# Entry
Amino acid sequence: MKSGWIGCAALCGWLLAGQALADCTSAPTAHEMDFSLCKDWPAYPGLTLTAAANFSPDPVYGASGTVGLYDLHLSLVTSADSQPLASFYQPSAFSVDAIALDELKFDTARYKLAPQLQAFGVRVRFKGSSRVNPVDETWLSLYVKDGNALRPVMDRLVVYQYGGEWDGDCAGERYETTRTVALAKTSTHGYADLIIKTISSSTTGKGEDAACVSNTVAQKPVLTTLRYDGKNYVVPEDFKGH
# Structure
């Protein structure tokens, strides 16, 4: 637990250094499909989170293709001079084909997993281009500072999912699922349990144009508790992005 704690003396120094700084600036990208972003961490003024997702095209489809892999690199740096404090690197973190990586962003909600341990989130959105077979999915992963590493403690929880098959006008089926994360008052292995609230709905349509009849059925919200097993929060397979 101590390895994930940012000490008061260092924190106070970063706080003073960061007060007069403007918003961070993302690093330039080398490929048009790369992602680069940064965000000042509200929980720790004076510290900045940076992320880069670098695309490598599949050689079978050629260098100009959109099929390939993304490497993911995360860093925690001082806002004043970009001094590196901790990092995470995952080669081939995401694969893309007809379903593209559409958005990468930080989630700096107050994920206070322990009295002296604050996590941050990374949300990754994938989106398809088909209107009649829509795919739209967002994953959330949580990380903590552990020494000079950013350690993932929750991996690829699907927090939004939309899909289905329809004719683009009326006939067919579509589904939508949204999940939110809240901290429980209970804890396991020193980390707060996470309460996942799942809200799902399905829509069916029949007919054409003015004769279209659409019906949406909303399911009752379902609460699921995720517990820390000493290394990670155990995410059910049907909640996890693949």
